[in-house]
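Milestone M4 deliverable, item 7.
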Amino acid sequence: MDIRSQISMVFHLDKCIGCHTCSIACKNIWTDRKGAEYMWWNNVETKPGTGYPGKWEDQDIYKGGWEKKGDGIKLKGAGKKKGLSNIFHNPHLPVIDDYYEPFTYKYLDLIESPASDDQPTARPVSLITGKPIDIKMGPNWDDDLSGTPDYARNDVNMKNLTPAEQQAMFQLEKMAFFYLPRICNHCLNPGCVAACPSGAIYKRGEDGIVLINQKVCRAWRMCVTACPYKKAYYNWHTGKSEKCILCYPRIEAGYAPACMHSCVGRIRYLGVMLYDADQIHEIASADKDKLIDKQLDMLMDPFDEEVIASAKKNGVADSTIKAAQKSPIYKFVKKWGMALPLHAEFRTLPMLFYVPPLLPVMASLANVDNSEQAEKLGDISKYWPDNWLYDTSTEELWGTVEQARFPIQYMANLFSAGDTEMIKLRIKKLMAVRIHRRWKTVGDIPEERAKQALDDVGLTAELADEIYYLTSLAKFDDRFVVPAAHREQAIEMVENTGDVKGSTGFGFKQGTAKRGL
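Output delivered:
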């Protein structure tokens, strides 16, 4: 057992309002400079939709992440052999049009134009070439447009939805969407680290944050290809790759990252997780239907004496272990079983988890056959009084919980590698907590029905109240448990591991960790 610490995150999608405050906070601090205009280390996408860059989830196009080969895995579009063959021309790199060509406006034209009968305009010009351009794309171009043919219907997660499920999503009057904020996942098995020919990308031993050494980077851009989430970017001005650094200077000073600190909806949580690095290769190589269960199994109980002893042997500080014991991430992911990783099938073992949204109620439910969807989700409505609905004035507008749901298969394609049962369980837990709180605060639901709802998903009233508190009432220090920085002790985490070769991308035991110190 090789216990290490990892800074991890949870995003609660039920609370995201799509305000992009997080994106602007990150942009103003880190990427408001020449060559980084198109970089959005934090972005918020509307789902369903093609995302940023366009169709980033389609690895048939971009060849990101890992693929299973025999008993092991290999990078899809990078690696020594592929990297050498594509060194002068990489067909799997996203181009500027997949993002957008950064632009500004010739504002002086509004001031300096001579007197005329026509209203002067500020013409858009490219920040790269300086020449006039026609704006065709932007960082949030598809914002709130999930019902449009150009975006939502091209979402790769729509592939295996039934016609009935797509009909319910794409009739404009029944349109529904949700927001998906994304940052670098700071994975346990990062493809970017394994793909870098220069060894510029490394994973810090003390907290698992993935960084790029700008002095070592040689602009091969294999990291851009290898990252399936497309969170490594190429700076066209400096000729270096850049990515989210999880605001590590702020974390080392005891502050939350800028995107998390500024979040209006308070959807973000940050804390420490302890994990067994010895399991990384085995788990990344597991069958697709076992990936998530195995990843969750490798996340260790911070109260277990054996785990604590192994962590201390690796140089993990007592303050970090205490932070892991208070971590809101451990509660959401392990204790309550409510959060899941995004696209685990990429096999990078991402350490950013999402609580799936209960999801918006569609505008109308008339003439939509949701019997198949209701069967998938199960009958939650039995816990409610016969005459109780969200809006008691009209059943057609709000319908039952099963009918007003986003397709479970779509959510499974995003968060559970296609396993609908995982999504169903977490949605039922969210619903059970809501039922419990409705009984407790309003009292229009019988107590026995509220208790039965909790029993069916393995929750107690005490746990339901804990979930409610951390979701709705948590203070700043409850949501962000930032461990004290111990850079002076980080070398122990490398020295105690021994001489392990070929570890890049599989535990960073030797080369990658040392480069970070």
